[in-house]
Specification:
- One of its GO terms (molecular function) is nucleotide binding.
- By secondary structure, this protein is of the alpha/beta class.
- It has two domains: 119 residues, NAD(P)-binding Rossmann-like Domain (Rossmann fold), CATH 3.40.50; 188 residues, Dihydrodipicolinate Reductase, domain 2, CATH 3.30.360.
- The chain has ten helices and 15 strands.
- Strand 9 and strand 10 form a beta hairpin.
- It is globular, with a radius of gyration of 21 Å.
- The two termini are 35 Å apart.
Length: 343
């Protein structure tokens, strides 16, 4: 098996997770570090004991190394330039979400990835959790009958500082994409339309809108309702959101922290008519894969080695991106937006 020679672009704190991952793979090695502030790349190399060249420019790095795989761990505004440059140079790309800061940019990236014949997979680490895998399996085998609706609440006060505080749509663009992608993963459906109300609550420390309510119609007829705020102090949900998933025969609850629970309806015929009760049904949590970033990276590398698209290949992830930019557009114009016009 050919060795994956990795060029890491973006040497902020998040890159440590990606570098930790590469260190434990026998079929991958880091061949260079790139950061717009080269001193940051130099400091990262020294801190991690990496004897590799550092660069300020990705084109210089690609010319000077034999990289065949690029990790794009830059800020969202840089994703398009990094990904396009890497694909044009004949490299595969694994990158952080979101794909881009506009739908047009994301569509361009998918087009170039297809034309290049190279893989571009996107980090959607919320798919790689034991509990959400169990929820999806339960929905798939009909534990609650025909799926009807998904409801997700996300309320956290996140004091990150930095670029997020200055973004126009910090919640939807940088955070809600996780939950939107989870809804797609659980339902197995694609988004059809969205209506969104976006706002910035009192006390918010964000420049842009840090709260939103979204209603999505999905291709299987289900409805996905999202409520979220990234500037809520008190009673936080989990980062994975608080879920209620309803079907024709029952409901699944998952708080994002603990194992999911399920109640289904029992229909008893009595002389006086129909009597409904419910019973609790156990949802097996048996997925043995690794979780979080490492689980997603396992899938990316497995897909690359097997010559197949990853679960989070850009050609699929574009639908989660469409949910993001469709919601932003809906909030801007105050109307429902049909997502087929975006993808």
């Amino acid at each position: 098996m050919a060795k994956h020679k990795v060029l890491v672009v973006g040497c902020g704190s998040m890159s440590n997770t990606w570098l930790d991952y590469v260190e434990q793979r026998s079929d991958a090695e880091v061949v260079g570090l790139v950061d717009v502030y080269e001193e940051t790349a130099i400091a990262m190399a020294e801190r991690r004991g990496l004897d590799v060249p550092t660069f300020q420019d990705i084109e210089d790095a690609l010319s000077a190394t034999d990289a065949n795989l690029v990790f794009d761990i830059t800020i969202p505004d840089s994703h398009k330039q990094v990904v396009m440059t890497a694909l044009h140079a004949g490299c595969h790309v694994f990158g952080e979400k979101p794909m881009g800061t506009s739908m047009a940019d994301a569509a361009d990236m998918v087009r170039v990835a297809r034309a290049s014949g190279k893989r571009y997979a996107v980090m959607q680490n919320r798919r790689y959790l034991r509990q959400i895998r169990a929820v999806r399996a339960a929905v798939n085998y009909g534990a609650i009958g025909r799926l009807g609706a998904l409801y997700a609440d996300f309320f956290i006060g996140a004091h990150f500082g930095g670029f997020r505080d200055a973004m126009d749509n910090p919640l939807i663009l940088d955070m809600a994409i996780h939950t939107f992608d989870q809804a797609r993963f659980i339902s197995g459906a694609k988004p059809v339309s969205v209506y969104c109300q976006e706002f910035n609550p009192p006390g918010s420390w964000y420049q842009g809108n840090a709260a939103a309510i979204c209603i999505f119609e999905m291709s299987d007829g289900t409805v996905f309702c999202y409520r979220g705020a990234w500037c809520t102090e008190g009673f936080p949900t989990s980062w994975e959101s608080n879920w209620r998933i309803t079907g024709s025969e029952g409901t699944i609850l998952w708080d994002g922290r603990n194992d999911p629970t399920c109640e289904v309806a029992l229909l008893d015929r009595e002389p006086t008519g129909l009597h409904r009760e419910t019973r609790t049904v156990e949802i097996p949590v048996a997925w043995s894969g690794r979780e979080g970033h490492w689980g997603c990276l396992d899938e990316m590398f497995d897909a690359l080695n097997e010559g197949r698209p990853a679960e989070t290949e850009c050609t699929d992830n574009i639908y989660s991106v469409a949910m993001v930019f469709g919601a932003i557009e809906s909030a801007r114009i105050g109307q429902k937006v049909y997502l087929r016009n975006l993808v």
